């Protein structure tokens, strides 16, 4: 019998002073059975940092041809591709052919090794790459409840997250900007 995803309901107040973006969003997010809380919260944080009209979660790990997060235009063209983790260079090369904006958010203890092995190959691609420090993502994951109210304030390269279970901050280090 296949394992079912765990469903989380989030209400997030986003305040991004750098982009003059202030919004309250309601999200229902499915945690894939093979996904840990840290990866799920890295997805949520990347969503908040890039929040805009038409941005949505995809089927994620269940659909290998899709990014974790995307935006499509009204005529169904892909306009934004966001991957979470340590994707293969070929996957991102393909993404740059189908989407004008591509971003990668890496977050775990393998991030530094993945980046040092792939940095030169990524330089030739029109992709922005960011890193969330692993200890900060682990701290963010401790705030998770099945139903959550979050306040996310983004200033510069840091997101300040407040929840009833506590507060934390997560830095967003730019490894490559295009």
Which series of helices and strands comes N to C? EEHEEEHEHEHEEEE
Overall pLDDT metric: 94
Structural class: alpha/beta
Low-confidence stretches: none
Portion of residues within helices:
25-40%
Quick one: how many beta strands? Answer: 11
Rg, rounded, reads 16 Å
The CATH topology of one domain is Restriction endonuclease-like alpha-beta roll fold
Q: In CATH's first tier, which class of one domain applies?
A: Alpha Beta
CATH architecture of one domain: Roll
**Separation of termini?**
44 Å
Main sheet strand line-up: 3-4-5-6-7-11
Layout of helices and strands:
Layout: E1 6-16, E2 21-31, H1 37-50, E3 55-57, E4 69-72, E5 78-84, H2 89-98, E6 102-106, H3 111-123, E7 128-131, H4 134-141, E8 147-155, E9 158-163, E10 166-171, E11 173-176
Parallel strand pairs: 1-8, 5-6, 6-7
Antiparallel strand pairs: 1-2, 3-4, 4-5, 7-11, 8-9, 9-10
Helix pairs in contact: 1-4
Protein name: YaeQ protein
InterPro entries: Restrct_endonuc-II-like (IPR011335), YaeQ (IPR009822), YaeQ_sf (IPR038590)
């Amino acid at each position: 019998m296949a394992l079912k995803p765990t469903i989380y309901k989030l209400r997030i107040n986003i305040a991004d002073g750098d982009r003059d973006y202030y919004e309250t969003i309601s999200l229902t997010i499915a945690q894939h059975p093979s996904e840990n809380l840290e990866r799920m919260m890295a997805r949520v944080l990347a969503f908040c940092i890039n929040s805009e009209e038409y941005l949505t979660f995809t089927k994620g790990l269940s659909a290998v041809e899709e990014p974790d997060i995307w935006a499509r235009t009204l005529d169904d063209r892909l306009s934004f591709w966001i991957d979470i983790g340590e994707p293969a260079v070929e996957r991102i090369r393909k993404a740059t052919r189908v989407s004008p904006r591509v971003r990668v958010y890496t977050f775990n203890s393998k991030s530094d090794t993945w980046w040092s092995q792939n940095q030169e190959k990524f330089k030739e691609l029109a992709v922005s790459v960011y890193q969330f420090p692993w200890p900060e993502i682990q701290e963010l994951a401790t705030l998770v409840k099945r139903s959550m109210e979050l306040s996310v304030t983004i200033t510069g390269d840091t997101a300040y997250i407040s929840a009833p279970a506590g507060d934390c901050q997560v830095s967003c280090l730019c490894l490559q900007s295009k």
